[in-house]
From TrEMBL:
Record SUPFAM superfamilies: Bet v1-like (SSF55961)
Record key words, sorted: Signal
Signal peptide extent: 1-26
Span of domain Coenzyme Q-binding protein COQ10 START: 55-162
UniProt name for this protein: Carbon monoxide dehydrogenase subunit G
Highest taxon listed in the record's lineage: Bacteria
Family assignment from sequence similarity: Belongs to the ribosome association toxin RatA family.
Length: 189
């Protein structure tokens, strides 16, 4: 009898503690699958392509994609993100973080010049940090009840990537970052 009571108490405790974890995990579940991100590696350069639907209006997607002051609050691998300089359509942004994949992790930092063409295009060009070269283009287009986001980047890291997991790490980090941005778009919606 005591054994049966202890078993049910433990089962209830396990259920009570795991349900909130499962709910939190579902709320933070990736909205962008790693298989949606196309990555090619040529020498040390990675080419990244992603096309996805954001179920929010273009203005809402734009607001999140250009909220560099608060990106470290909603993108898990960023520890800091700050705007160093600002004009009407050009920003200079510094970001730091850690890329993780399995047991491998590496810190990164970048300084980028961001050219804004509201509300359709965001171009970024690397200026410094431990990324040797970085150029990216994000295009936004109204699509049905949401926004089509098309992303292309060419990146030459200034740090070592394990040859076998390099593309997988880039694919994972890209999916994680865009999932976080989509979660933020939906949260603000």
């Amino acid at each position: 009898m005591v054994y049966r009571l202890c078993f049910w108490r433990m089962a209830f405790w396990a259920l009570a503690t795991l349900v909130p974890i499962a709910a939190a995990t579902a709320a933070d579940a990736p909205l962008v699958a790693e298989s949606d991100v196309h990555v090619e590696r040529s020498g040390g350069t990675f080419t990244v392509d992603l096309s996805m639907h954001a179920p929010v209006e273009p203005a809402q997607a734009w607001a999140v994609l250009t909220d560099f002051e608060h990106m470290a609050d909603f993108i898990p691998n960023l520890s800091s993100s700050q705007v160093l300089e600002r004009s009407d359509t050009v920003l200079k942004v510094a970001q730091k973080g850690v890329a993780r994949y399995g047991v491998f992790s590496t810190p990164f930092e970048s300084v980028r010049e961001i050219h804004l063409n509201p509300p359709h295009e965001i171009r970024a060009h690397g200026l410094g940090g431990n990324v040797q070269r970085m150029d990216s283009l994000m295009q936004l287009e109204a699509e049905g009840t949401g926004t089509r986001l098309t992303y292309h980047a060419e990146v030459l890291p200034g740090f070592w990537f394990p040859p076998l997991i390099g593309p997988a790490l880039v694919r994972h980090e890209t999916a994680e970052q865009f999932s976080a941005m989509l979660h933020e778009m939906l949260r603000r919606h």
